[in-house]
What does this fold into?
Amino acid sequence: MPIEILVVICVAAVVLFALIAGILSRYRKCPSDKILVIYGKVGTDKNGQARSAKCIHGGAAFIVPLLQSYQFMDLTPMSINVDLKSALSKQNIRVDVPSRFTVGISTETGIMQNAAERLLGLQLQEIQELAKDIIVGQLRLVIATMEIEEINTDRDKFLVAVSNNVEIELKKIGLRLINVNVTDINDESGYIDALGKEAAAKAINDAKKSVAEKNRDGEIGQANAQRDERIQVAAANALAIKGENESRIEVAQSEALRREKEAESMRIATAAEAVQAAKAKEEAYIAQQQAEQTRAALETATQQADIIVKAKIAKEQAEIEAEAQAEVARRTARGEADALYAKMEAQAKGAQEILVRQAEGMRELVSAAGGNADSAIRLILANNMEELLKIQVEAVKNIKIDKVTVWDGGSKNGDGKTATADFISGMMKSIPPLGDMFNQAGMELPKFLGEKIPENSPKMLDK
It folds into this structure.
């Protein structure tokens, strides 16, 4: 192979490999903790408007060169510390609500689009600051709609209200709220401390009252317990004596019932043994009878099988011999038919060949006669004239005339001939003259052989 062709092949292989590598380099897989944002020419939405970006969470996508580009957004949760100060409550009391919010970029379809449009390209610190501003505003709004007692005592209600308000606003920029943790609530006026002291005093008094009530209940309970103990011990002794007597009666009854059951069981067992022995003998007789019947049936089946098998074998042998004879007859007939066909085909080919040769000879004879078919026929007749005359002579050659008796009275007929002359003339005329034969062949007798005299000519009249 020339070197130039090898160089071209190598260059083409390098270009093809580079092209494949370039295509594969544009195929991007999205990790589970990130969002792949493809921007550029990414198609249209349901309303037919051009989309600003295409977001993919998980999976992979091909980035079209020159028309598309891509970036990743991190889904790692962000912890935001919100130290809210002097937030005005519904009672116009300012409170401090230190809390910690955990947020992250949402993976919902519509919210991912918001994140791609508003957070793509921002640093983590910038996203945290943006989310913190939204959280602080919504936190102040929730505190303004609740009283101090609700915020302090019903933390669940407070957290639900904060989560709902903050979640709605965070979705607008593509974030979702993961967790809310309020560490403590304080106020400048000491209202919450006073509520705590009141609750503590109330709890102490309730505890003292509960202790006194428990002591009273304890003494009463002890006396009642001693009384119940004496009553229950006496009742238990009476029940014990009654139970012992009843137990003795039940033991005696049980002993009698046991003896009765033993006797009944002995009787039933003896009868059962006798019945089982009789059944065993009956079954032995039946089994022996069945065995004899089976043996007889087996011997009958064996004899029938021998006869049937021999008959089947003879039948199959006869069928095989008949089939063999039929096959021999078929093959013999097929061979005779093939031989007859070959013979007839050879005869047909021979006849065809004779006809072909005769046709070729006739064609050459006609050609030799100058293309005149009549002349060719005359030549054939002239060539076979000797044979034709020989046939004519053979026609009367073997006629045996031992004796010819002619009764002739000497009288003449109308043409002046006697009966003897007419007989001789008729016999000679039975052989066709040469002139007639030539005339039948469409030819004329050569003049050196003689000239035919017409019947009406003067010469014939003289004769």
